[in-house]
Structures are given as C-alpha cells and as structure tokens.
Amino acid sequence: MATHARTGGITGRLRYLLTLSRPRFWLYLAGPVAVGATFGAETTADLFAPVTLVLFAYFLLPANVFLYGVNDVFDADVDADNPKKTEREARWRGDPSIAVLIAASAVLGVAVFGVAPLVAWPYLVGFFFLGLQYSAPPLRFKTTPVLDSVSNGLYILPGAAAYAAVAGAHPPLAALAGAWLWTMGMHTFSAIPDIEPDTEVGIRTTATFLGERRTLAYCLGCWLAAAVTFALVDVRIGLLLVAYPALVFVIYRSNVDVERAYWWYPIVNTAVGTVLTLGGLWRLVYA
Fold first, then answer.
1. Does domain 9-286 match CATH 1.10.600?
2. What is the mean pLDDT of residues 268-280?
C-alpha cells in the first residue's frame, strides 16, 4: 500500500474519492440496470418502483467506489508507475478515511439485498464476489490470463439483478451469455493500454499473454460471439452489437493507437446502451 498522504481536507478527499470512482465509467454499472429494468418491466410504473431506483442509485456511485476502490488498494504497487493513474485516474494514497468509505460502500450493498426479491440475489452475490476477488487475494482473477476476462462478467450482473427484480423471473439465458461475452471483450480491450506497465511489474493478463494484435483478435471474437448470441434474443440487438467488432476492425486496419481508442468507448457504450433502453421503452409504450 502506498504511503499515507493527506488529500487536502474534506473537500480534497471527496474530490479524490470522486476521481477514484471513475466517473467516465459510472454507466458501466448503472447503465445495465437501466437496460435490465426496461426490458424486465411490464408497465412504465415498474421503471420507478423503489427497487429499481435503489438499484440504479447504488450502482451509479457507491458500487463504483467499492469496485474501483478495491482495485486501487490492491494495485497500489502495480500502479506506482502507470501513467494512466496520473493523467486520467487516481493513484492510491493510503488515506485511512478513504479506505473506510470504500468499505462503507460495500456494506451499503446490504441495503440492496433488503429491497431486492430473492430471484435477484444470485446476481447481486455474483457481483460482490467477483468485484472483490477480481482484485483482492486469494483469487485475484486479474492476474490470471483468461480468468481476468471471464470474471468481468460482473459488469452485467447489476442489469441481470434489475431485470429479475422487476420481472420476478431470471433474464433469458442467451441475453446473459451475450452480455457476458460483451464484457469479456470490453475488459480485454481495456487491458491493452496496460500491457507495458503490467509486463514491467510481472502482472500476467490475457492482454500481456496474447500481445496487442492477438488481443485485438480475441476482442473481435468475443464481440462477434456476443452479437450472434444476442441475435437469438432479438435480431435487432445482434445487429446493434455488430458495432463493436466493426470498430475493432477499423482500429486494426487504420493503426489507431489503442490507448487513444480506449477512451472512445465510454461514449460508444453510452450510445449503444441508450439505443437499447429506448428500444425497451418503445416496447413498453407502443407494443
């Protein structure tokens, strides 16, 4: 753990905590909640049910503090020389008060179990288990090639929980599989900019194992498989997901720096999630 350093009083600590939670990526957890609730709903009133609002609120901020806070605590040594932590993210400072807030964000998740029906619990348990063990010992999935990719299915579990909570039933298996494949591609693509710093400190990931070009091929395969699997649920969703392998192909052929392209994806993901949500709302209003 990095040496403790003050973050400039309450305001400084809150600003640091906000940076640590990766605001650019907040919708990676809250977005699936919106999509899952929209497709699980039978009426527009379901979208504003207490359980829907609690899930969205928790996965918008506290869950991000938990997920990325745990990551930064256990990656403090690894991130010491990672330029991404200086330019766009927060490097762990070892502040005990921030550690308490990270722990509190996890404890706050208990309230989510309190309002969610039992059918949603397996997805919530899966999120907290994978969210912790992705970065923390003893499993620390992020340091094992392939497992680091597979374990990032945790990002779609909030959406599955929202669908189950609203619909009172489990989401379609093909939708879960397609979404899981999508997260595998997204995670592994995001690991490409870290190949050099991870290699220097001896961290083994799918990206360091495959190298940049083969990792791009791996992401292409994951996203193609996701599009095909989603097409089993709805052909229109499958066609929408083709945007991801198409973009990888463009990046590969145009020699765009992947580290630069990586920061496009919050916009791409938000746009795709918005289209999915609007499609679900159309079904509610006009079907």
1. yes
2. 94
